[in-house]
Amino acid sequence: MLKILKYSFYDLIRSRWSYVYFLFYLTLGFVLLFLNNDVSKAVITMMNVIIVLIPLIGTIFGVMYYYNSREFTELLLAQPVKRSSIFLGQFFGVAGSLTLSLILGLGIPFLLYGLMRSNAIFDFSLLLVTGAFLTFIFVGLSFLIAISNENKIKGFGYAVLLWLFLAVIYDGLFLMSLIVFEEYPLDTFSLIATALNPIDLSRILILLKLDISALLGYTGAIFKKFFGTQLGFVVSMAILLFWTIWPVLGLRYKANRKDF
Amino acid sequence: MVCQGTWAKTWTICPTCEHSSIKQTIQEANAHDTLLIQKGTYREFEILVDKPLVIKGINYPIVDGEKKGEIFRITSDSVTLDGLFIINVGVSYTKDNAAIRVVQSKNFSIQNMVLEQLFFGIYLEKSSHGKVYHNRIIGDAVDEYNSGNGIQLWYSSDVEVRKNHVQGTRDGIYLEFSDRITITDNVSMDNLRYGLHFMFSNNDIYTNNTFENNGAGVAVMFSKFITMKNNTFRKNWGTAAYGMLLKEINDAEISDNTFEENTIGINIEGSNRIKYINNDFVGNGWAIRVVGACYTNSFKGNNFLYNSFDISYNSKLNDNVFEGNFWSSYTGYDLDKDGVGDVPYRPVKLFSYVVNRTPETIVLLRSLFMDIIDFSERVSPVFTPDNLKDAQPLMKIRP
Questions:
Q1: Where does the chain cross the membrane (chain A) (predicted)?
Q2: Separation CA A171–CA B88 (nearest Å)
Q3: pLDDT number for residue B41
Q4: Nearest Cα to A142, choosing from A81, A76, A60, A224?
Q5: CA B269 to chain centre
Q6: For every residue of A213-243, which 3-state class applies, written as one string?
Q7: Which positions in chain A touch B367 (Cβ < 8 Å)?
Q8: Residue A30's domain spans which residues?
Q9: Which residue from A85, A112, A214, A251 could staple onto A1, CB 3.0 to 4.6 Å apart?
Q10: Residue B2 pLDDT more than 50?
């Protein structure tokens, strides 16, 4: 598995797309910091970008990589290698290289602009951690979708739909249910609904760390009471971890049973 | 000897002098005398000033109340207190002990005082035509229930409050039933509750004050004909903090103020006929939040810069006028180059409307979904008041 991981990883590191991705974050980081020179404000803007783009890029990149390397995968399958290690190796290769691009791309400009001296370092590391989680989650999900669909168009469609659902439609349904049931106490409901979606969870985790959380008012206070504690942090990390692990397990299960 | 009663005399008080007690010297002194208090510590409280005197400290003598009660109580007209350092006012749960209390007096002047470790600072009760000038009041309030206000005016009128610095008290400056007061050049910061608190006080003017980092900002309630100019409201940040809270205020003028980094710049409730002119709203959560029943207000020439929400409304009805403001999130164009945008700006986002209706939805703050529906609402308004728009948004920021 490690060999395949290494292969996929180096293959991607050398590919143009990781550079583009890396350069994109690098420019974004520099431009943001150049425009408002304030690290903590830049973290907010960065959050907006991260919770939308990382899942999208992770999904598309994952599906694309899976379908593109299909011939190589078939070649590998003919070798005496464990099936699960082929697919897991590819998965970790893709997710790892994307995460690396993200961390380096954002980390370098922030370091140069004196992140270490500002007290935004914790918020920033939280940003990177959730970014890494989101990458792993969405690459995993897209691999799972790709392996379940022979048809490339269908696979792409499902993957984009999945992103659309978690990034946009879920919030729409969430909003509708909040408005429909506005007569009822909704704090626990909104807490649970937020925690279930990794994108919403990441957004709230970062928001609560920033000044802007004061805007959240009473509901925000309840959220802070939960997520601000040690337990809340552990629970949300556990949820993110769960979201990372189940697509991987699903991928392994599918890989072992699939007829190529 | 006969002349003694008619000529003003100067008494010198120091710890080792013939006159070592402020209280006794006041009793011995005649009206219009001057008391000079030399440097030293005077452990006295409940000092009654019942005749017109000038009491002046030299090099800030310390008057230590030892937490036993009120310190100065002025009941006569034309008293001047100048340059004393008053500490340790007694905290009481039944009496509003103050460092200096002025009761039913006129033409008083309280200046250059330093008050520390206090309960209430300067308390004017049914007094008028006086001056509170250049005092420094530094409290160490922790809880609201056992702390007092820095400068409190109760049933007083025609008082000038100028160049004071109030910090760490419950309400920095508190006015109740006090008319025709001018509040100028004061700094009120780090107070537990409000930096400035108005209740039932009409025809007051406040200019050039700075209110910073107060627990709940500034509250102006149930008052008429108030003028607020050139004030700065900064960093009143917290879940229940406002730059300024207006409740039942009519016919006021609010101009040239700066509201910077407050959770809510101005919260308006039941306030009519107010003119908001040339104010700057910078980096607030909500620049202006209109809660209800606000009619015939006009907002002209204000700068709205980088607020999370510019205006929030909770009804479909709009009777307020927005005209010629600069909005940093305005995306329109100006083809005829007259400096005024050709497309009207709609300052109310659908999201803020939704949040007003169901407060829990605020958890969707900064999500992609909200940005999308905000955009579509801006293109064709359905939920937000149709006539709530700035038809003449400025293209360039008002300098």
A1: 20-36, 42-67, 87-112, 124-147, 159-181, 231-249
A2: 56
A3: 93
A4: A60
A5: 18
A6: HHHHHHHHHHHHHHHCCHHHHHHHHHHHHHH
A7: 51, 171, 200, 203
A8: 2-257
A9: A85
A10: no
Spell out which residues of chain B touch residue A174, defining contact as CB-CB under 8 Å.
364
**Residue in chain A lying closest to B365 (CA):** A216
Give A147-179 as a DSSP string.
Answer: HH-S-HHHHHHHHHHHHHIIIIIHHHHHHHHHH
With contacts defined as CB-CB under 8 Å, which chain A residues touch B369? 167-169, 171-172, 175
- C-alpha distances (whole Å) from A260 to each of A139, A149, B75 are 22, 12, 100
User: Which CATH number characterizes residue B169's domain?
Assistant: 2.160.20.10
Q: In chain A, whose CA is at the least distance from the CA of B351?
A: A175
B221 falls within a domain: no
* Contact at CB, B263 and A215, closer than 8 angstroms: yes
CA nearest neighbour of B368 among A13, A202, A178: A202
CB contact under 8 A, A220 and B362: yes
**8 Å CB contact of A220 and B363:** yes
Query: Could you report the per-residue pLDDT of B342-385, keeping only the tens digit for each?
Result: 989 988 888 888 888 888 888 888 888 888 888 888 777 777 77
Q: Which domain holds residue B32?
A: 1-215
Band the pLDDT of B1: cuts 50, 70, 90.
Answer: very low
Q: How many domains does chain B have?
A: 1
How far, in Å, CA of A192 to CA of B363, rounded?
12
The answer to whether residue B344 sits within a structural domain is no
- DSSP annotation of A212 reads G
Handedness of CA A117, A123, A126, A128 (dihedral sign): negative
Is B9 contained in some domain? yes
User: Considering its fold, how many domains does chain A have in total?
Assistant: 1
Mark yes or no for CB contact B358/A178 under 8 Å: yes
Q: Looking at the predicted structure, is the pLDDT value of residue B52 above 60?
A: yes
Predicted ipTM beyond 0.90: no
Could B363 and A194 be called an inter-chain contact, meaning their C-beta atoms sit closer than 8 Å?
yes
- pTM (2 d.p.): 0.83
